[in-house]
Amino acid sequence: MLTRRKLALLTGAAATSALLFAAALPGAALAQQKTVVDFWHGLPQPLGGQLEQIVKDFNDSQQAVQVNASYKGSYPETMQAAIAAFRAGNAPHIVQMFEVGTATMMAAGPAVKPVYQLMQETGASFDANAYIPAVKGYYSSKDGKMMALPFNSSTAIMFYNKDAFQKAGLDPAKPPATWPELVDAAKKLKASGSSCPFTTSWPTWVQLEQLGAIHNTPFASQANGYGGLNAELKIDAPLYVKHVQTLIDMQKDGLFKYGGRDNKPDALFPSGECAMIQGSSSLRSRILKEATFAWGAAPLPYWPEFANNDPKNGIIGGAAFWVMTSPKRTPAEYKAVSQFFTYLAKPEVDAKWHMDTGYVPVTLKGIEIAKAQGYYEKNPGADVPAAQLTRTPTTENSMGLRLGNLPEIRNIIQEELEKAFQGQQDAKQALDASIKRGNTVLRNFERANKG
Amino acid sequence: MQRRVTFDNRLLPYLLLAPQVAVTLVFFIWPAAQAIWQSVHLQDAFGIRSEFVWFENFTHVLGDPNYLDTLKVTIVFSVAVTVLAMGVALLLAVLADSKIKGARAYKTLLIWPYALAPAVAAVLWMFIFNPDIGSFGRALRALGYDWDYRLNGGQALVMVIMAASWKQVSYNFIFFLAGLQAIPRSVIEAASIDGAGPVRRFWTITFPLLSPTTFFLLVVDMVYAFFETFGTIHALTQGGPGKATETLIFRVYQDGVVNNDLGGSSAQSVILMVIVIALTAVQFRFVERKVHYA
Questions:
Q1: Do B259 and A77 touch (CB under 8 A)?
Q2: Minimal Cα–Cα distance from A83 to chain B, Å?
Q3: In A121, A199, A247, A431, which residue has its Cα 20 to 30 A from A85's Cα atom?
Q4: Are strands A65-71 and A112-113 parallel, antiparallel or unpaired?
Q5: Chain B residues with CB inside 8 Å of A76's CB?
Q6: Least confident segment among A57-71, A373-387, B250-264
Q7: Which of B34, B41, B42, B44 to probe by mutation at the A interface, max A CB count within 10 Å?
Q8: Residue B258 to residue A407, Cβ atoms within 8 A
Q9: Where is the signal peptide, in residue numbers (chain A) (predicted)?
Q10: For residue B64, what pLDDT is reported?
Q11: Is A327 helix (H, G, I), strand (E, B) or coil?
C-alpha cells in the first residue's frame, strides 16, 4: 500500500531526478555540437576494451567528433545487427565485419560506402599501399580499390610445445617445416606418450583456405571469386584430397585429434594436452597467459611436392571496418568517419594494437615500428605471422577469398569433415560433397545479388 | 450449469480485450505475416534486391535431403526430451509428495535448475561432459570408453537430450507436485482400505486424476523441445558433429542469421509453424478427450 510517507519520498525522488535531468541538459546540448559517429564492433573482452580505448584516445585527441563504440555480440551477430539496422534505415556509420563477410558486404552495393571513395570525397589522404599486400588484397575490389579499412587481422600459424618435443627426442629449435616432417614428429610424440600430438583450430580456414594459398592452388574458380559471382569450389584438387586424407589417416592412428569447430580446439594447446596446434596467430596471448611449458611459434608446414619448396604467403583472418550508408546521413558525418579512419590508419596506432593484442600489423610501417621498439627480440616468435603474410608477393590464389556466404560454406566443410573423421566417408567423398553443397550456396548468392 | 457474464456497456468488453489483441497482433500475427511474405521472396542480405519466387524456397527446403534428416533428428529429439522430462519429473514428484524426511529441501533443490538460462545450463553440461576438460567426460575416457561427442553423433544427441530434459524436469516437477497435492487424500485412503497397493493406487487413481496436468505439460514440453532448446544446442554442439544434433529451430537460426538466407529460413519457419499448429490441434482433438477434468 502506498502510504503518505512513501508518496512523499517518491515525489521527492521525481523532483530530484527532474532537476538532475535539467542540469544535464546544457552538457547534452554541448555534445550535440560534436558530430556523433556510431561504431559497432564484435570483439569480446579483453579485446573489445582495448578497441574502445583506441576510440577513446581518438575522442580525446580532438573536439569535433564523438565516436560511440558499442559491442554487438560475436562477428555473425554484429553482421546481423548491422543488416537489420540497415533494413530499418538506421545503419551505424561504421561496422566491424569479419573477413568471411567481405563478399557479402561488397555485393551490398548501395548499403556500403567504399573507403577509397569516402576518403576521396572528404579530401583525406589515404594510401592503400601502406598496407601489407595480403591485407590490401583481401579488402580490395576487382580493380584494386580499397573497399574497407583493414584493422584487426590475423593469420594462421603453428604453435608447438617445446617440452613435449624434448621429451620425444625432437629438436625444440626445429619445428616441422613440411607435412611429412609433421607426421614424423607426431609419430615420435605419440611414442613418447602424447595423447594428442597435433590438433587444429578453424578446420576450414586453416586446413583448406590457408593450404590453398600457401600452395598457390585455387580454392574456387574465378580467382577465388575475385573474378565474379559465378565462382565454383575447386577443393577436389589433388592437394586438398591428399591433405584431408592425411588428416583422416592421422586421426585413425592417434596422431591427430579433431577438437571441434571454429576456435573450440584452442583450449587443447595451452592446457598441454596437444603438442602441436595450428590456429589463429591471435591465440598467442592466451598461450602466453595460460601455458606452463616452453613453447614456440612456427609458420604453417607445406607439402614439398605441391609447393615446389616455395610456399607462398598465407591469407588473413580477422576483421575490417566498413562504412554503411543510411538515408539520413549528412556529409559532415562522412567527414567525421574519415577523420576517425585517418587516425586508425596511423602506423603508430597499428603498431600499438599489434603489440597489445597479438593481431598482425596491417601496415608495413607498423611492422617497422614494432621492430624498432625491439618487440620481436623481447617476444620471440611474435614476428612469425607477419613474416608468413609477407614472405612472397601475393598471387591470384593467395590474395584471399571472395565467396558469397563463406560462413555457410565453412560450416558445410566442417560438417563433411566431421563425417569423414567419424569414418562415414573418405577425403574425396567429403570434398565432393562439400563442393556440391557449397556450390548450391554460391549459386543462391549469385542469384540474390545479380541485379 | 453455465454462468454468463454480461456487460451493460457494449464497448467495454472490446476495450478490455484490446491490450491482449494488440499484443497478439504486434508480437505474433505481424511477425508471422512477415515470415510468410519473406518465404515467397528471394532477397539479398540487405534487402536491396527482392524477387517474388512463388514457392521456390519451399521446394528448395523440402527437396534438400539434409532437411529431411534434420526433421528426423527433431522428432527423435522432441519425443525423447518430452518423455524423459515428464517421466523423471513425475517419478520425482511422486517421491517428493510422499511422507519423507526433508521433503521440503528436496522440493526446493529440484526446482532450482529451472532458474538457469538454457545457455548457462549447457555450459555447465559442457564442463561435465567435455572429453578434455569435463569431469565426467575425462572419467569416461580414463575408464577406456571412447567418449567424444564432438565426433560421435549418437553420443552428441544423447547429451543434448539429457541437457534439454534436465532443465525441463524442474518445470514439470512443480506442476506434477501441485497436481498431486490437489488429489483428495480421502480417495486414496479409501482405496488403501479396500486393499489396493501403491502401484495400483497410482495407476487407477493418481494418474487419471493427474491427466489435466499431464496433458498441459505434454503440450508445453513439445513446444519447449521444438522451440526453446535452441540455446542448449547452440552452446553444446552447434548442431554437430555433421548434422547429428541439428534440429529444425537450430537450422532456422543457422540459415537466417548465420547464412543470411532469409527466404529459406522463413520458409522453414512457416513449415515449423504449420507443424506445431497441427501438433497442438491433434493433441487437443484426440488426447484431450481422454483427459479427466476434476
A1: no
A2: 6
A3: A121
A4: unpaired
A5: 257-258
A6: B250-264
A7: B44
A8: yes
A9: 1-31
A10: 86
A11: coil
- With beta carbons under 8 A apart, name residues in chain A contacting B240: 260-261, 414-415, 418
Higher pLDDT, A19 or A319: A319
Spatial CA neighbour of A407 closest among A365, A438, A364: A438
For residue B165, list its beta bridge partners: none
Interchain pair B257, A80: CB under 8 A: yes
Distance to chain A for B43, nearest Cα, Å: 6
Residues in chain B: 294
3-state secondary structure A341-405: HHHHCCHHHHHHHHHHHCCECCEHHHHHHHHHCCHHHHCCCCCHHHHHHHCCCCCCCCCCCCCCC
Name the one residue in this structure whose C-alpha cell is 589433388: A238
Q: Nearest CB to B44: which of A268, A441, A448?
A: A448
Residue A82 CB partners (closer than 8 Å, separation 6+): A40, A72, A91, A92, A95, A97, A324
The H or E element spanning position A189 is: helix A179-191
Give the A:B interface size as CB pairs under 8 Å.
Answer: 84
Among the listed residues A420, A105, A450, A447, the one whose alpha carbon sits nearest the alpha carbon of residue A235:
A420
Nearest by CB: A111 against B42, B46, B150: B46
The whole-chain average pLDDT of chain B stands at 87
Of A297-306, A308-317, B253-262, the one with minimum mean pLDDT is: B253-262
In this structure, is residue B22 part of a structural domain? no
Q: Band the pLDDT of B292: cuts 50, 70, 90.
A: low
Q: Could you tell me the pTM of the whole model?
A: 0.82
Mutate to test the interface with A, among B151, B234, B236, B265 (most CBs of A within 10 A): B151
Does B134 map to a domain? Answer: yes
For residue range B186-228, what is the model confidence (pLDDT) as tens digits?
888 898 898 888 888 888 888 888 988 898 899 889 889 988 8
**Dihedral angle over CA of A304, A307, A312, A314, nearest 10:** -70
Cell of A18: 527532474
- Find out whether the peptide bond into B118 is cis, omega within 30 degrees of 0: no
Domain A155-315+395-448 has CATH 3.40.190.10: yes
Q: Are A415 and B242 a contacting pair at CB < 8 A?
A: yes
B contacts of A407 (beta carbons < 8 Å): 258-259
Confidence of residue B45 (pLDDT cuts 50, 70, 90): confident
Q: In this predicted structure, what is the pLDDT of residue A24?
A: 45
User: Is B188 part of a structural domain of the chain?
Assistant: yes
Set of chain A residues whose Cβ sits within 8 Å of the Cβ of B41: none
Q: Is the peptide bond before A46 cis (omega within 30 degrees of 0)?
A: yes
Question: Structural domain tally of chain B?
Answer: 1
pLDDT over 80 (residue B288): no
pLDDT, tens only, A12-47 = 444 444 444 444 444 444 445 789 999 999 998 788
B52 contacts chain A (CB < 8 A): no
CATH code for position B164: 1.10.3720.10
Domain that holds residue B169: 65-290
Judge: A271–B133 Cβ closer than 8 Å, yes or no: yes
Q: Is B37 on the interface with A (CB under 8 A)?
A: no
B 219-238: CB under 8 A from A: 238
Of B207, B203, B200, B199, the residue nearest B183 (C-alpha): B207
Please tell me the distance in Å from A131's CA to the nearest CA on chain B. 29
Q: Which residue of B has its CA nearest to A417?
A: B242
Min Cα–Cα distance to chain A from B292, Å? 41
Is residue B155 included in any domain, yes or no? yes
In the three-class reduction of DSSP (H, G, I as helix; E, B as strand; rest coil), residue A71 is classed as strand
